[in-house]
Amino acid sequence: KQEVTQIPAALSVPEGENLVLNCSFTDSAIYNLQWFRQDPGKGLTSLLLIQSSQREQTSGRLNASLDKSSGRSTLYIAASQPGDSATYLCAVTLRGGGNKLTFGTGTQLKVEL
Amino acid sequence: DAGVIQSPRHEVTEMGQEVTLRCKPISGHNSLFWYRQTMMRGLELLIYFNNNVPIDDSGMPEDRFSAKMPNASFSTLKIQPSEPRDSAVYFCASTENYSNQPQHFGDGTRLSIL
Hints:
The complex is a heterodimer. In chain A, about 0% of the residues lie in helices and about 60% in strands. Chain A has no helices and eleven strands. By secondary structure, chain B is mainly β. The N and C termini of chain B lie far apart (about 35 Å).
């Protein structure tokens, strides 16, 4: 059974700092990996999707990398801002698993002024 | 462009009552998913549909839960009878019928069973 873990569970940083969120998964036979953001009382917003054949994806200040063989992904946020404060979740889709997403436990990020 | 629409946003009811959650996916999306989020278990997939057909319902907790998708623009998740342990936030998501497309989530229904 695929298990997805995120470390740290919570993180507090000063504004402007660069930071890295970590995601690990136990079954490397993934189809893709996605990073989501969740604001309090809201649904999830997809940030980046990395295909299993890709190594990284970038969108603005966000960069996600994927190392399938080691079962790891990182989300790099450059020059963090208070508006980045949210919970970040990673999720994987297994090969042959249809569109089923298995979610990680999430990292709660707070960017302070 | 309207996103995934869920109703109601909040529901408070007494145990034993029937609860119906509703979802309207994004127009043109062929896949629809129901998730449940709790502090203890995180986000869990309950069931998903492709082209209105249930594909995988292995996440549905028990027979008290049922889901339907009578057409491409509407789905329901029903709990009957409801129990306090069903209290959670229930999300609906949709995507185009490809595994390499991101899922788009609604804002969820916060369900409290007293």
